[in-house]
Specification:
Elements lengths: L1 H16 L2 E3 L8 E3 L18 E3 H6 L8 E6 L16 E5 L4 E3 L26 E5 L2 E8 L2 E7 L3 E8 L2 E8 L4 E7 L14 E5 L2 E6 L5 E3 L8 E3 L27 E3 L8 E3 L8 E8 L4 E3 L4 E13 L5 E9 L2 E2 L6 E8 L2 E8 L18 E9 L2 E13 L2 E3 L19 E8 L1
Parallel strand pairs: 1-2, 3-4, 15-16
Antiparallel strand pairs: 4-5, 5-6, 7-8, 8-9, 10-11, 11-12, 13-14, 14-15, 17-18, 19-29, 20-28, 21-27, 22-26, 22-29, 23-28, 24-25, 24-27
Length: 428
């Protein structure tokens, strides 16, 4: 009976003060456990031993108060379900009112990975955050009013961005050219200002090339007046293509062609020299062939004095004719008549052929035929045209393309009295 009284007497102060001290007469909290050996080298164990159970035992508990602490020493039993849904490893767990929750040790970024629960801000207060490995480093910091990210390597400094399997690299190698590259499944690289601001390329702190917000390109000028404006010399070491569309290449022309302007708003074109405006497209010449006698009062084509010419599509051309003709009587004296120039069977010009009279004091070289020469100019559109020379005999039967074999002193020259026609064709 004294034993129980003593026990009650011993417990009465505990309930009165509501504080329990182990190894201390003056507990500072509800339960104050003081190490028996706080210092020294004794081998005796000090500490708090939490109840040790396996997962099945923790899973089987019911009516567990919130904040109950246990140490799960085995997960070989029970299942990771119900109140044990979080018990996947040996360790400390506390009951949060629903399930046993792992008592995690603090995550140290130097020794373990972790999950950022929410956004965090690191205020450097003028300091910089450096990741250093020997002479290689990545630095995040500020310099004055400038935010700075620096990547330094003994042989290469680089920044890399990955989008799935697409890779963008910006790097510079020691004593080498700086580079921006793409690889992987990247399909292209765009340099874009989003707003209508220009993109400038500079060397030696001087603007060399500008792409304006409207897409005009200036080389040597920041105010290009056309899609490409070169302020300076231009050298082309390969072909020059003109015309074409946004999806097809223009023409490089062919050997010997020249570039011809088609006026404002139109692409120039390659043309052969003989199709350019103001130039001679062609020089043409025909002459009579066989002699033909044309009876008085009739008209006939002069043999050989015919030519067919074509004005190309899209052009107009000017034809300048020079015609020389002889007409003689059968005995070699001159006739009287008219040489006529026809275009597609229609007369466009003519000239009278006559003879010289008797020389004073004699009849030598009397009635000598006088050659007729006449000019004609005509401007024609695209098409094909046939030009020919005719002769109309007015007085006597006349011969054209006469061979003067009966003339005194004839030396075999069969061309001397042939009808001749020269045509110079000019481009307009």
């Amino acid at each position: 009976m004294k034993k129980y009284l003593l026990s009650g007497a011993f417990l009465l102060p505990l309930f009165y003060y509501a504080q329990v001290g182990i190894n201390t007469p003056n507990p500072a909290s509800t339960l104050d456990i003081t190490a028996k050996n706080a210092t020294g080298t004794t081998a005796e164990v000090d500490g708090l031993l939490v109840p040790r159970v396996d997962r099945q035992r923790a899973q089987s508990m019911t009516g567990t108060p919130v904040s109950t602490l246990i140490y799960v020493n085995s997960i070989a039993t029970g299942t990771q379900a119900g109140t044990a849904a979080n018990i996947d490893a040996v360790g400390y767990y506390y009951y949060d009112g629903t399930v046993w929750t792992k008592l995690n040790t603090p995550v140290n970024i130097y020794t373990s990975n972790g999950t950022l629960a929410t956004s965090r801000i690191v205020t450097t207060a003028g300091n910089q955050l450096s990741f250093t490995n020997g002479t290689n480093s990545v630095i995040i910091g500020t310099t004055g009013t400038m935010g700075l990210v620096s990547a330094t390597g003994s042989s290469r400094g680089a920044f890399q961005a990955n989008g799935g399997s697409a890779v963008l690299n910006m790097f510079v190698d020691n004593a080498s050219a700086a580079q921006i590259t793409t690889s992987g499944n990247s399909t292209s690289m765009n340099l874009n200002t989003i707003l209508a601001n220009p993109i400038n390329l500079l060397t030696n702190n001087t603007n060399r090339m500008t792409v304006t917000g409207t897409g005009d390109v200036g080389i040597g000028t920041q105010t290009p007046q056309k899609k490409l404006h070169v302020n300076g010399a231009l050298q082309i070491t390969n072909e020059l293509n003109v015309g074409g569309t946004t999806n097809t290449a223009g023409s490089a022309g062919t050997t010997g062609q020249i570039l011809t302007s088609n006026g404002a708003g139109a692409a120039p074109t390659w043309n052969t020299l003989n199709t350019s405006s103001g130039t001679i497209s062609s020089a043409n010449y025909v002459q009579g062939t066989t002699a033909l006698t044309i009876n008085q009062g009739t008209t006939a084509d002069v043999p050989g004095a015919t030519i067919t010419l074509t004005v190309p599509t899209g052009l107009t051309q000017t034809f300048l004719f020079t015609i020389l003709g002889y007409a003689t009587l059968v005995d070699g004296n001159s006739s009287q008549g008219v040489f006529t120039l026809l275009q597609n069977g229609v007369k466009i010009s003519s000239a009278f052929a006559s003879k010289a009279g008797n020389f004073p004091g004699g009849t030598t070289l009397s009635s000598m035929p006088v050659p007729v020469t006449f000019l004609k100019s005509v401007t024609l559109p695209a098409g094909t045209y046939t030009f020919k020379v005719q002769y109309s005999a007015w007085s006597g039967n006349a011969t054209v393309n006469f061979v003067p074999s009966s003339y005194a002193g004839y030396n075999g020259d069969t061309e001397a009295m042939l009808t001749k026609m020269q045509v110079l064709v000019y481009n307009n």
